[in-house]
Amino acid sequence: MHQPATMSDPIYISEIFSSIQGEGLLAGRRQIFVRLMECNLDCIYCDTKHDKTDFCSVETKPGSGIFTNLKQPLSLHKISEIIKDWQVQLPGSHHSVSFTGGEPLLYSEALGEWFPVIRKIIPIHLETNGTMHVALQGVKKHLDYVSMDMKLPSTAGCTEHLWDLHELFMREALCSTLSVKVVIGDSTPDKEILRVCKVISDVDASLPLFLQPLTLRDGSIGVSAGHIFHLQELASSLLPDVRVIPQMHRILGAL
Asked: What CATH architecture applies to the domain 13-252?
């Protein structure tokens, strides 16, 4: 796995845009998205490019879908300036800023400097693959929301060793409003959902679990309704808060 970036390393950002959060606990909320480059995993279903580039794509106006390229790396001052400006342009529209990726915690030490400044402007939501619990320690006090993925071997193609990392991460993230998401497909077996439920129960059974139907590259759903119902029933027999939410932004045709 990659090691977290040091404070002297620049943060490479793929894009900054405004859209509707389509997944998990904050689904339906309007957010500013800051998508960071690089990831320590290589999930089968991922459609995000992680390679570093010399330019960051930034919407010229929040929600316009029209982008301009800014030379990398962007400074904290520039990021704060963009967020402040968008808050003025659309007062009250944005619930929070979502740092996503890639895997944002690869830049944890630099983000430890960024987050306190940005949090004075808007609440911070972290989207993470939930494998870097040590990196989380340095930034967790600055976070309002953490959306943690648990990577299932059946859909992500990741190896079994992630279960222990996910549990360690979950325990570390309890100080924020934490939710857990798993991507499910037709190949997802009962044993994986049972393992997810056990990890959550061992940490905090009240945590909400979101079952997200796999979205295929052509935009179709890669799991039958019957299998979704079956896995939801299984998880709900063990946890009190289990919800099924597809990727709403994909359905809306939004970024």
From this structure: Alpha-Beta Barrel (3.20)
